[in-house]
Write a structure and sequence with these properties.
The strands form four sheets. This protein has a three-stranded parallel beta sheet with strand order 1-4-7. Strands 2-3 form a two-stranded antiparallel ribbon. Strands 5-6 form a two-stranded antiparallel ribbon. The longest helix has 18 residues. Helices cover 44% and strands 10% of the residues. The radius of gyration is 23 Å and the shape is globular. It has 18 helices and nine strands. With 344 residues, it is mainly α. The chain folds into three domains: 107 residues, P-loop containing nucleotide triphosphate hydrolases (Rossmann fold), CATH 3.40.50.300; 96 residues, no CATH class; 59 residues, no CATH class. Strand 8 and strand 9 form a beta hairpin.
């Protein structure tokens, strides 16, 4: 696989200690370009979706480092995430969370570092056109496609953003001023210096992503309005404690980028907008009956033919929200959905 250098990327420069760590990993893997060069740029690894479990995590008879370790202090990019086997994706839980991977063999146990930025990409639906008019997928098919990614893996992805198609005619005008990579890198390095100064007395903590629970209590205090906003959103979408911690770390980073000492309400609002996949899933036409007699949540997909007839009407977000959070019974909602068909 081709190794991509990152001299022009927006990631901050590596320290001497980080360079030595990466160089050691590439040395034992036999990937140094001339056998003794010091790696100064952050690694970028992008394995194909048919990569084996051992290739991604590490292994073999002599337990060599895998892609998660080769991406240490850099970026691991998985394109077409839904195409990766479930067993391979679930094996990423420990490396992403613990920043290290342990490989046990008969002749011993090997521990390799795996502190990387996990970046992925996938289509929004099987045909790839959702939510555009060219999409031919039913909402049930979309949910089934997205469920290939397990909940624990999605919990470990801090930012989930939808990337909309580029309007060629608008982009060709060149009227919108965009930040260059050099400008973005300067912003990242400035925020990074603030974090390094904050954690200068903490062991093995250099940035907000490495904050422990105790450090979050110290540096991620919220005012009443921000706390209520976070609580309401987390209850609505059922966020886990891990997701809430990630939101707080992101809010702390947002405040650092603006150079303010405390987390503001605008920082909480900003990070809550970074969970596009949660919002997209909640807007799909899957009728939820929250008042079943057994108090269990039930999801019933609407008939495909009926769904296609109602698609244009139910793209209205206010109507979707009304149905989603309605206190009416399951039978009343189904009567509403089939009202026009019965009249015909």
């Amino acid at each position: 696989m081709r190794h991509i250098t990152t001299a022009e990327m927006t990631t901050p420069e590596m320290s001497e200690a980080e360079s030595l760590e990466v160089t050691k990993i590439y040395s034992i893997s036999g990937f140094l370009s001339d056998g003794h060069a010091l790696i100064k740029s952050r690694p970028f690894r992008a394995p194909h979706h048919n990569a084996s479990l051992n290739a991604l995590i590490g292994g073999g008879a002599n337990a060599m480092p895998g892609e998660v370790s080769l991406a240490h202090n850099g970026v691991l990019f998985l394109d077409e995430l839904a195409k990766f086997p479930n067993r391979t994706l679930d094996a990423l839980r420990q490396p992403v969370e613990d920043k290290k991977v342990c490989i046990s063999r008969v002749n011993g146990t090997h521990t390799f570092p795996s502190n990387f930025m996990f970046v992925t990409a996938m289509n929004p639906c099987p045909c790839g056109y959702f939510p555009g008019r060219k999409c031919t997928c039913t909402d049930y098919e979309i949910i089934k496609y997205r469920n290939r990614i397990s909940g624990p893996i999605m919990d470990r992805i801090d930012i989930q953003k939808s990337v909309h198609p580029v309007n060629f005619f608008e982009a060709s005008k060149g009227e919108t001023k965009r930040r260059t990579s050099a400008e973005l890198r300067a912003v990242v390095e400035r925020a990074r210096k603030i974090q390094q100064e904050r954690y200068r007395n903490e062991e093995a903590v250099y940035c907000n992503a490495q904050m422990t629970t105790s450090l979050m209590q110290q540096y991620c205090g919220l005012d009443h309005a921000s706390l209520e906003l976070l609580k309401t959103t987390c209850e609505a979408f059922g966020y886990s404690a891990r997701t809430i911690h990630k939101l707080l770390r992101l809010a702390r980073t947002s405040a650092d980028i603006d150079g303010v000492p405390e987390i503001r309400s605008i920082d909480i609002q900003k990070v809550l907008r970074l969970r596009d996949l949660d919002k997209s899933n909640s807007s799909l036409l899957v009728v939820k009956s929250a008042r079943m007699q057994d108090q269990r949540e039930c999801q019933v997909p609407v008939n495909c033919n009926q769904l296609m007839k109602k698609r244009d009407e139910l793209h209205n977000k206010e109507l979707l929200q009304t149905i989603e959070h309605s206190s009416r019974s399951f039978e009343e909602i189904m009567d509403f959905l089939t009202a026009d068909d019965s009249q015909e």
